[in-house]
Every structure is written in C-alpha cells, then in structure tokens.
Design a protein that fits this description.
- The structure is a single chain.
- This protein is an alpha/beta fold.
- The chain has a single domain (45-299), classed as Rossmann fold (3-Layer(aba) Sandwich), CATH 3.40.50.720.
- It is built from 8 helices and 9 strands.
- The strands form 2 sheets. Strands 5-4-3-6-7-8-9 form a 7-stranded parallel β-sheet, with helices on both faces.
- Strand 8, helix 8 (275-287) and strand 9 (296-299) form a beta-alpha-beta unit.
- Helix 1 crosses helix 8 (275-287), helix 2 crosses helix 8 and helix 5 packs parallel to helix 7.
- The longest helix is centred in the middle third of the chain and has 26 residues, at 142-167.
- The protein is globular and about 50 Å long.
- 40% of the residues are buried.
- It binds NADP nicotinamide-adenine-dinucleotide phosphate (NAP).
- NADP nicotinamide-adenine-dinucleotide phosphate is lined by residues 52, 54-58, 76-78, 100-103, 128-132, 151, 178, 180, 252, 254-255, 257-260.
- InterPro entries: NAD(P)-bd_dom_sf, SDR_fam.
C-alpha cells in the first residue's frame, strides 16, 4: 500500500514540497513519479546545460531533463549525433545542440556567449563531458594525458565559471559534476575476494581513492582529474554559500557507455549500471527542496553476477 500526498507551493518562493507516506511496500516508481512531478513544477521551462550530451550518461541526462520539461542546451563535438539522438525525445522541454570542444577555451567561450544571447540565464549545468583512455602514464603520449586534464578539469572549471555568471540572474540554480566511483568489483580482484573488496571500496571513489591493479592499469591521469573535480566542487560550494546555487558531485560506478568498452570484459561479473540510472539520480538531486544540498551521491551496481 502506498499513499502519496503532494503539497505544491509557490514557484517564486520555492515552497514546493512533497509529502509521501509509504506504507507497507515502498515503491520506487511512485517515488520517481513524485520527484518528477516536483521537477516539472519547479524547473519546467528553465534552462539546463549538459556537457557531453552526445552519448552515454550525458545523453540520458538530456533526455530525462527534456522529459521533465527543462529546455536543454547540449554541448559536445558531435553536434549531428546530439541532434539525431534527441530528435525523438519525448517531453515538453526543447533541446538545442551546440558544437563545443570542452578542451578548447575559445570553443567554450563561444558556446556560453551564444547561450547568454539566446537564453540570458542558466538554471542547471551538468558538467558531464569526460574522457578516460586505457594505458599507463609512461605508455601514453603527453597529449592524451593533457587532453584528459583539459576536458575533465580545465574545461569543467571554465564551464562552471561561465555558468555561475549567468546563474546569478536565476532565482535558484544547480551545478552537477560527474565524478567517478572506483571501478572496484572487477574480475581480477573478484578472483581474489570480490565480496571483501566490494565492502572495502564501496564507499571509496576514484575521485577519493586510487585503485590500480596489473589487470586494470588504465587509470593513468583519470583519478587525478576526478580528485580535483571533487575538491573544486567543495571549494565552489563554500564560495557560493548564499544558498542560491547548489552543487552536487555524482560519483557513479561502472556505467554501460562507450567510455568503458575497453574494460567490459574485466567487469563481466558485475551487473553494471545503465546511463538512465545516473540520470534518475540527477533528477532526484535537483528535485529536492531548495533548502537541501545533496553534496555527494555515490551510485554503484548492486549485484555481482556469480
Ligand atoms: N561510464 C562509466 O563507467 C562512468 C562512471 C563514472 C563516471 N563517468 C563519468 O561520466 C561522464 C560521462 O561519461 P560516459 O561514460 O557517458 O562517456 P561516453 O559515453 O564516452 O561519453 C562522453 C561524452 O563526453 C563528451 N566529450 C568527450 N570529450 C569532449 C570534448 N573534448 N568536448 C566536448 N565533449 C566531449 C563526448 O562528446 P563528443 O565526443 O561528441 O565530443 C560524449 O558526449 C564522464 O565524466 C566520465 O568520467 C563514467
């Protein structure tokens, strides 16, 4: 049995609230429906920027936002892919694809100038674009390592700064940074003692803890960028402390996307996450009342396949 009470207040004073009473059986789908209703009321017609919206997690986030009534600007290099992937997205929100190389300062500046001219303000930004190439630091070209820093950290920093300038016009705003949970439950360590490892590392993040093994030597510069993103999120949260801009760091475990194709065979005993799982978490985070700061969300696969 489930009873859900909605009390929706005034958009201007952020007094939206949902009261949900879950009796006997908690229902996730009812919970999602409640959160979605809240999102639709509060964020409908507002502008969200999603970097890396052409594939994987970013594409799922763009779809979830459009479904929730947000207008979305997707920033990625593959503009046509964004357009074709989003062509049939359902929902009241509109999607605008803008070609942008997050490793290039001028390209980012051009994108935000276009956003300012067209929309004036930004309400939500999801700093999602990211790269992670397999290989050890000494085996990879410097340019590959530098590109990861440029996309994962420097580009994210510039996007955040330019977004915050435009967010000052908004009544409330939300920055979401996508971090990384340690890949953890991978085959090589699984063979040693997968359950012990899971319990030890489930709360540690690649942005919090480095994990490298002989069979998973791909981390290279990636954890350094994600450690830095976590620190940056914390500094920005303290600097933007008037409560109008909330900042959430999302740290997923393994998600089925292009990025981890190379390590899927090492993850065969994991029931890995889907991009929609991360998008749903972001819908939850931005849907909380404006007094609530979700600082960190760690999302890991629940099941280890035997
Ligand atoms: N998959 C996982 O297991 C996992 C787990 C935890 C966290 N993450 C993080 O989640 C985020 C998204 O990853 P994903 O798994 O969805 O990867 P993905 O499927 O490979 O997608 C990466 C996205 O980033 C964009 N991107 C890469 N370089 C870019 C650049 N120079 N300029 C603009 N956009 C760029 C790509 O767009 P274009 O190529 O079109 O430019 C693409 O849309 C990343 O920050 C990643 O570190 C992933």
């Amino acid at each position: 049995m489930l009873s859900v009470k909605f009390s929706i207040g005034n958009a201007e004073n952020n007094s939206f609230a949902i009261e949900a009473t879950f009796a006997h059986h908690y229902s996730y789908s009812y919970h999602c429906a409640a959160v979605l209703l809240l999102i639709k009321s509060r964020w409908e017609g507002k502008l969200a920027v999603v970097t890396g919206a052409s594939a994987g997690i970013g594409l799922a986030i763009a779809r979830a936002f459009v479904r929730s009534g947000l207008n979305v600007v997707g920033l990625a290099r593959r503009k046509e892919k964004m357009e074709s992937e989003m062509a049939n997205a359902d929902g009241k929100g509109s999607f605008y694809a803008y070609e942008c190389d997050i490793a290039n300062e001028q390209s980012i500046s051009n994108a935000f100038q276009w956003i300012e001219e067209k929309f004036k303000t930004i309400h939500v930004i999801v700093n999602n674009a990211g790269v992670g190439k397999p290989g050890k630091i000494m085996e990879l070209d410097f340019e590959i390592l530098k590109n990861a820093i440029d996309v994962n950290l420097t580009g994210l920093l510039l996007c955040s700064k330019l977004a915050i300038v435009l967010m000052k016009e908004a009544h409330e705003a939300h920055i979401v940074n996508i971090n990384r949970q340690c890949l953890g439950k991978a085959k090589d360590i699984a063979d040693e003692n997968i359950r012990t490892f899971y319990k030890t590392f489930v709360s540690s993040l690649f942005g919090h803890q480095v994990y490298i093994s002989p069979k998973l030597p791909y981390a290279n510069i990636y954890p350094a960028t994600k450690f830095a993103v976590r620190a940056l999120s914390e500094v920005l949260r303290r600097e933007q402390n008037d409560g109008n801009i909330r900042i959430t760091n999302i740290s997923p475990g393994a998600v089925r996307t292009e990025m981890i194709q190379h390590s899927l065979e090492n993850l065969e005993r994991l029931e890995i996450l889907e991009p929609e799982d991360i998008a749903n978490a972001i819908i939850y985070a931005i849907g909380t009342p404006s007094r609530v700061q979700i600082e960190e969300l760690t999302i890991t696969p629940a099941k280890i396949l035997s």
